[in-house]
Amino acid sequence: MSASGGTKAIVAALAANLAIAAAKFVAFLFSHSSSMLAESVHSLADSGNQALLLLGGKKAQREATPQHPFGYGRERYIYAFLVSIVLFSVGGMFALYEGYEKIKHPHEIEAWYWPVGVLVFAIIAETFSFRTAIKESNVLRGKKSWTEFVRHAKAPELPVVLLEDLGALVGLILALGGVGLALITGDGVWDGIGTLCIGVLLILIAIVLAAETKSLLLGEAAGSEDVEKIAAAVVDGDTVTRVIHMRTLHLGPEELLVAAKIAVQHDNTATEIANAINAAEARIREAVPIARVIYLEPDIYSEAEAAKGPDRDATPGGPTPTADH
After folding, report:
1. Residues 141 and 238 in one domain
2. Percent of residues in the chain assigned helix, strand, coil, to nearest 5
3. Are residues 257 and 147 part of one domain?
4. Residues 209 and 256 in one domain
5. pLDDT digit string (tens) for 162-211?
6. In the listed set 218, 233, 250, which residue is the last one of a domain according to the structure?
7. β-bridge pairing 240-252 and 255-264
8. How many CB atoms are closer than 10 A to CB 185?
9. How many CA atoms lie within 13 A of 190 on its CB side?
10. Do residues 181 and 52 both lie within one domain?
11. How far apart, in whole angstroms, are the C-alpha atoms of residue 2 and residue 149?
12. Partners of 262 in the β-ladder
């Protein structure tokens, strides 16, 4: 996985979640708090999720084969989607079930200092993990808002870790609130309510992750800035006069396919056109280094024929409009 994949943030989150999961489970054994059990399963699920992200990054580095000529870059999207499934099923649904059972059969929290102490420790550890994810993300985020970064990022790892860490922090606060109210009132129902809130939170985060990674799995075009750079790089004003139609597709977070029909002069020789295409490919790779697979088809521009192409709603000769997910 490249540096842009956020390996440091994933490893930091994995280390924090393993330690927190063990501490929470010990606290559950002493206190019998359903919030602590739900949170221990939550941290265990998060640890598994980070392992999945690391595995996906490793598998994505495999070389292309005849059966998979464009490589395995999308493995990272597949494993990110699996994360959302694990978070929904193992984390969210289990917390809902445990919360329901605790509300149905409430009991007082024993050895209150265990869950309170572990939750405070967990909040501190998760804060450091979240801080690492924010620092790693800021390198790529630029001027985008956090919502735009999560929605438009082509590398799934950092958005996943960010949402998981945010969910973990909010979940810990909910667990602390549930345990605290149960201790203050002496009513274990509050512990169950806190557990239910954790379950709802995890399911909402899982749905957001599933929606975002689904779009990546289906195949997304390059961002508008990259599309403009590619379109500008193709045209040399001499042999290549315009882009008639263009399609871009992310084969992975750091690999882009570019396919375009380009207009050339009607009296150009085959040698001149071949040289112009080679030069255009070189300019594209210089302008957008992740554009690694490029197919350029020369044609004689006709406004009537261009209107029949795949970009009927686009300005004739202009690049394909794109929209991020």
Report:
1. no
2. 65, 10, 25
3. no
4. no
5. 888 888 889 889 888 988 998 888 888 998 898 899 889 889 988 988 88
6. 218
7. antiparallel
8. 10
9. 16
10. yes
11. 18
12. 243, 298
